Amino acid sequence: MKIKANYHSHSTFCDGKSTMEDMVLSAVNNGFTHWGFSAHAPVSYPNTFALKSEDFDSYKAEYLRLKDKYGKQIKLYIGLEMDYIPQLAENLRENAEKNYKLDYFIGSVHQVKENNPQIKVTNADTQTWFIDGSKTEPYDEGLKTLFDGDIKRAAGCYFTQEIDMIKLYRPDVLGHCDKVVMHNKNRYFRIDEQWYKDLVYGLFDAVIEASIIVEVNTRGIYRKRYEDFYPSTPFLKYLIEKNVPLVVSTDCHKAEETDALYKDAVLMLKSLGCKELMYFEDSWKAEKIDCFI
Ligand SMILES: [Zn+2]
Ligand SMILES: [Zn+2]
Q1: Going by C-beta distance under 8 Å and a sequence separation of 6 or more, which residues neighbour residue 113?
Q2: What is the whole-number distance in angstroms between the Cα of residue 253 and the centre of ligand 2?
Q3: According to the model, what pLDDT value does residue 124 have?
Q4: 152-186 burial by CB neighbour count: b if 16+ within 10 A, else e?
Q5: For the chain, first and last CA: distance in Å?
Q6: Neighbours of ion ligand 2 (CB under 5 A)
Q7: Could you tell me where the DSSP H helices lie in 14-101?
Q8: How far apart are the CA of 29 and the centre of ligand 2, in A?
Q9: What is the pLDDT averaged over residues 210-217?
Q10: How many other β-carbons are positioned within 10 Å of the β-carbon of residue 45?
Q11: Nearest bound ligand to CA 133?
């Protein structure tokens, strides 16, 4: 059995640059056997990155059209990458299952709220710390204005937010789980500092407790924003030792990126001792890592 599977992909329905059809054509060309769409889920505040609520039906219709057209060449699935921000997120799991009727959803944190219920968030743009995106300035600015430049407190809130998301909504896949490191660029902390490792291992305790899948996300490297996968290699070693189920994700936003560093990630995981990877085919299943090479 030969498997090449990616479930983290974007398109022009959200902030991606290629149409869903171009993504599928590229995936087929690159030998993918399984492919999932995961547009940024609609959110309740003004933004430029997410699928619009009113466009969900067209997103689904386009998925069904492509499934019909290319179903013999590649297995297609529909999901969403859902954001969790306390006070602003709706019930992610209920939405995924009952409202959107997805095959799966990826839970990700891109915007970090101060861990204080007294602070009411009405505008996520100005009141949260944006840890993603192509620019470093919003990261530095948010850290300074929202957390008084205290990286331990800010990173603590990031990981707490992920833990809360897992406990509340149990996403099928945890998206780029240590992306808070991306814009750090070795300025505020090193990933081998004990306080930081404690935060990451605290997150992994929640992952293990909820038995969810962690993605190994290649995007930071191929976009040259970070030198390692998310999660970073030392943390991947730990996840492999603990037998945490893993998937490889390219988190692609255009057709040229569909299999960016996919094989490198699989080979690296194998070299770290990983024996199996997960794939979705009507449900999540494990298969020997050699099937993915
Ligand atoms: Zn993301
Ligand atoms: Zn993504």
Answers
A1: 85, 86, 87, 119, 121, 127, 128, 129, 157, 161
A2: 8
A3: 84
A4: eebbbbbbbbbbbbbeebebbbbbbbbbbbbbbee
A5: 11
A6: 81, 251
A7: 20-29, 56-70, 92-94
A8: 21
A9: 98
A10: 15
A11: 1
Bridge partners, residue 77, by sequence: 36
Q: Check pLDDT > 90 for residue 83.
A: yes
- The 8-class DSSP code of residue 129 comes to E
d(CA 42, CA 81): 9
Distance 230 CA to ligand 1 centre (A): 11
Is the peptide bond prior to 231 cis by the omega test (within 30 degrees of 0)? yes
Of all ligands present, the nearest one to the C-alpha of 16 is: 2
Q: What is the pLDDT of residue 147?
A: 96
Does pTM top 0.90 for this prediction?
A: yes
Tell how far the Cα of 175 is from the centroid of ligand 1, in angstroms. Answer: 6
pLDDT of residue 114: 87
Q: Give CA separation, 139 vs 40, 175, 185, in Å.
A: 20, 19, 11
- Cα(107) to ligand 2 centroid in Å equals 10
Residue 40 Cα to ligand 2 middle (Å)? 7
Residue 252 has pLDDT above 90, yes or no: yes
Q: What's the CA gap between 110 and 177, in Å, rounded?
A: 10
The residues facing 246 across adjacent strands are 214
Judged against a pLDDT cut of 90, whether residue 213 lies above it is answered with yes
106 CA distance to ligand 1 centroid (A)? 9
Angle among Cα 84, 85, 91 to the nearest 5 degrees reads: 55
Structural class in CATH, domain 5-292: alpha beta
Mean pLDDT computed over 90-97: 93
Ligand 2 centroid to Cα of residue 202, in Å, is 23
Contacts (Cβ under 8 Å, ≥6 apart) of 33: 2, 3, 4, 5, 74, 75
In angstroms, what is the span from residue 108 Cα to ligand 1's centroid?
6
Question: Mean pLDDT, to the nearest integer, of 219-247?
Answer: 98
Cα(110) to centroid(ligand 1), Å: 6
